[in-house]
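Hey team,

Sharing the RNA-directed DNA polymerase from mobile element jockey run so nobody has to redo it. Sequence (139 residues) first:
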Amino acid sequence: LVDSISYSLEKKFICTDAFLDLAQAFDRVLHKGLLYKLKSIFPSYYYLIFKSYLEDRHFVVRPGFSMSDISPICAGIPQGAVAAPLLFNLFIADQPTTPNTITDDFADDKALLAHQSNPELASHFIQQHLNLLSIWYKE
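Structure output:
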């Protein structure tokens, strides 16, 4: 990120940026989708470890003196675990990219950069990338 901005300054380019913070990103990862991706990446023994880590989790809500029924947890990466950032990064690894923008990710934060001599063109490239990401996030 710093190198890209420094490059723009050295070349006297316009550096257009967009910074995204994905709200509740770790909580919104669907287990089925994550496991589908993990199955294609890892050997079966690693996949089965991750599967056992994510499946068969349940929760109960206790408002006041009553208690809800037990419900399955179908989404979310358990935060605080050593594997959480790895699992999240693997889940988002297939986000769309474009040849005219640079991306930098840190956990659930994403930076998009475009450096051009023309500010309108740089903004256009950022908007194109944002449009692609919007579609990806909805899916």
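Residues 119-138 form the longest helix (20 residues).

Ping me if you want the raw files.
A.
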